[in-house]
Amino acid sequence: MMKLKTSTKSSGNGGNNNNKDTTDPPIPEGKTLIVDPDRAVAKNMCLSEENASGVVDSYLDTPRDGIFTFYGVGGEGACGIDTASASISGMSAAASYVLFDANAKWIPSCFEDKHVVRNDKICINKCVKIEYKGKTLTVPINNECPGCPVNHVDLSRKAFDWLEPLDGVVGRATNATITYIKC
């Protein structure tokens, strides 16, 4: 099992890359890869499970037959953080809108610019584990897929390519097992 951990120098700027080591480590080969969320970003969001709203807990740790697609990473995702820098190497996921609380409050963060972040449990150390063709990939959730049902996850291109390395030719992979977990 390979595990990528973040090694960023966070300036508390909401994920802007100004003071961040942007050198991506090589993505390891293998059958299992766990990508940790950027703990500096998570800390600067200033969110806590106790004070957050959300429905994601009722969906955790339940494997589902599912599919995955990919999307272009960039900009602030549904949690209010830069999706390209929220995890090491830009590997992350957008989860179904069903897992997000439509009434979650947007609150000031602890980043230097105090930009707002979504006070939703899914934005606090939640990951998705995808099992596909003998490989297992776990990546942080930092965005919402408005058209996806619960068994569909939209991955960053790098995450998709790790599971299905056909240079985007497939675009939509089926027969995967999707499990939402705490990370």
Give a structural overview.
By secondary structure, this protein is mostly beta strands. The chain has one domain (31-182): RlpA-like domain (Barwin-like endoglucanases). The chain is built from 2 helices and 10 strands. The chain has helices at 39-45, 157-163, and strands spanning 2-4, 32-35, 64-71, 93-96, 106-108, 116-118, 126-132, 135-145, 152-156, 172-182. Strands 3-9-4-8-7-10 form a 6-stranded mixed β-barrel. A hairpin with a 7-residue loop joins strand 5 and strand 6 (116-118). The longest helix is centred in the N-terminal third of the chain and has 7 residues, at 39-45. It is globular and about 40 Å long. The two termini are 16 Å apart. 43% of the residues are buried.
Question: Main sheet?
Answer: 6 strands, mixed, barrel
Query: What is the CATH topology classification name?
Result: Barwin-like endoglucanases
Please give the domain count: 1
CATH level-two architecture: Beta Barrel
Query: CATH superfamily, called what?
Result: RlpA-like domain
Q: Per DSSP, what share of the residues sits in E-state strands of 2 or more residues? A: 25-35%
The CATH class assignment is: Mainly Beta
Number of helices: 2
Q: What class would the helix/strand composition place it in?
A: mainly beta
Q: Give the beta-strand count.
A: 10
The overall pLDDT average reads 81
Biased composition (Low complexity): 1-20
Region (Disordered): 1-32
Domain Expansin-like EG45: 76-183
Pfam families: DPBB_1
